[in-house]
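[Discussion] Sanity-checking designs against the backbone

I'm trying to build intuition for which residues belong where. Below is a structure token string of 384 positions. I'd appreciate it if someone posts a full sequence so I can compare it with mine line by line.
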């Protein structure tokens, strides 16, 4: 009898080892959720802000009784903005930590690679800031495992192009873009939409993700005498472009992609960022009532101002938690199913009344605002 019980136990363990982690319903202990973000490396300026929003959503959920009476346990992995680290981190989260949902990542290429791993284990991924449409295009239409609760690079680029031409009155536009899925997709959208709104793209220059010397690029662009320069890349590169533009005496209007809507950029560039414009999905002065609630919650917790990155982190984890509260049984596959049909969960970002609602590829859309740095602070222009 004892030998039979041992054999049955070994058989059960063998079956458990073969099943994907997300296929197992969590019915005891804490609900395990993960975060995969660049906490070190070139994108850490953004990643370290995003994780604050993620943690805040977990703390808030636990203060409200958790998920179905069980505490939320957060597991964090640093992908350093590298696809190899992202794959390793995703495997650790789903195989070792047994998470049933992941917030991540910020770099689009990392998100694509990590989602392949997560999908294998039937664990959904909600974007912590991955903008390139290549991330949602990697989904099978009607069967998404990666979700983005904010506009992708196509819509961000299009709305920014319209703002540059119509609100900033720039007719001749130069584009400096990062050689990555994120930067390239934004650049492609600019080249398509600037002419559509009555402007002209007079120059395009790319740079590698580790590049920090932009003097020669700025010199070439200046020869085209653009009315505005659009920078499509991460915040740390944007900081260098802003600083070096001032050093070479370039007076052209600078406009940044969504990765640059942070107080950290203003702090790192000082007076050089005065007049800098950036597309913005959230500001502490938001008219969005759910966003106002988040602003107060963040200020009380961290004793500082939130920004779009903390909002991204909060929204991504908040959506996972809300989907988990509705999932039955509580596992990754059923959390994914709840995300697919979700349409009544408010977002911190976007205009008043913005709700999470995903399309067939896991993307979503809402109106983006425009902010301009004046007297060392971003001022959000009213939504149209």
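Best answer:
Here's mine. Compare freely.
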């Amino acid at each position: 009898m004892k030998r039979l019980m041992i054999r049955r136990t070994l058989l059960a363990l063998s079956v458990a080892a073969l099943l994907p982690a997300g296929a197992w319903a969590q019915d005891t202990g804490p609900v395990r959720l993960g975060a995969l973000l660049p906490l070190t490396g070139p994108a850490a300026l953004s990643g370290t802000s995003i994780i604050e929003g993620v943690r805040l959503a977990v703390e808030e959920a636990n203060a409200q009784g958790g998920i179905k009476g069980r505490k939320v346990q957060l597991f964090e992995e640093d992908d350093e903005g590298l696809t190899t680290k992202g794959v390793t981190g995703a495997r650790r989260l789903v195989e070792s930590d047994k998470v049933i949902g992941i917030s991540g990542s910020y770099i689009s290429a990392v998100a694509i690679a990590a989602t392949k791993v997560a999908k294998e284990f039937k664990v959904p991924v909600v974007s912590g800031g991955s903008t390139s449409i290549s991330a949602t295009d990697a989904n099978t239409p009607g069967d998404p495992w990666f979700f983005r609760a904010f506009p992708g690079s196509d819509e961000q680029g299009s709305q920014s192009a319209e703002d540059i031409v119509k609100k900033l009155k720039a007719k001749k536009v130069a584009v400096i873009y990062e050689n990555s899925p994120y930067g390239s997709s934004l650049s492609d959208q600019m080249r398509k939409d600037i002419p559509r709104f009555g402007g002209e793209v007079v120059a395009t220059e790319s740079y590698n993700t580790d590049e920090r010397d932009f003097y020669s690029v700025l010199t070439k662009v200046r020869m085209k005498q653009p009315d505005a320069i659009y920078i499509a890349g991460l915040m740390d590169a944007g900081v260098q472009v802003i600083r070096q533009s001032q050093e070479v005496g370039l007076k052209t209007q600078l406009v940044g992609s969504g990765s640059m809507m942070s107080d950290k950029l203003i702090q790192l560039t000082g007076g050089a960022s005065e007049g800098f414009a950036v597309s913005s999905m959230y500001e502490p002065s938001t008219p969005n009532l759910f966003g106002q609630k988040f602003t107060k919650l963040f200020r009380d917790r961290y004793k500082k101002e939130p920004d779009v990155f903390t909002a991204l982190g909060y929204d991504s984890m908040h959506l996972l938690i809300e989907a988990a509260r509705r999932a039955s049984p509580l596992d990754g596959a059923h959390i994914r199913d709840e995300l697919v049909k979700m349409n009544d969960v408010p977002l911190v970002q976007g205009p008043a009344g913005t709700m999470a609602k995903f399309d067939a590829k896991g993307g979503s859309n809402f109106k983006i605002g425009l902010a301009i740095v004046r007297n060392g602070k971003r001022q959000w222009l009213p939504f149209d």
